[in-house]
Amino acid sequence: MSIEAAHPARDRLPPFERVVELYGPALLRYCAAQVGSERAEDCLQETLLAALRGYRRVREVGAIRSWLYSIAANKAVDLHRGHARAPQPVEDLAPLGASEEPAYRGDALWSKVRELPEKQRQAVTLRYLGDLSHSEIADVMETSQEAARRSVFEGLKRLRKEVSA
To answer: How many structural domains comprise the chain?
Structure first.
């Protein structure tokens, strides 16, 4: 039996270029919310490279979106870990810090979102930038739907408290 016969869904997979056209802009926004606008494009590129490598193994056409967000979430975690291990500057260079944008598209709220604990940050950005359902968020985060819903709730609760303070 050939590989194509074993996986008939492959015949229905859209070309990868079409997937990038459909989901690329939303994935970039998700990456920016997760890792900051200065590293968002790197995160997106890493996501798309990993997705391209594994695209032929996708079994369900309807799962492509959540599969892409799963990859993006993992790449964002990798970038956070790499950034945490990177050497930090010793001197305070105030002129450089003053010219940086505080957050994605200058929005202070997304700066606060990036300060949330990892699970809350990921859940909130998947919900509001990725427009994923709680079920899809659970798939991406590899958790239960209830845990995904709770992470979104707790993240929003914390954001409301910080914004109103």
So the answer is: 1
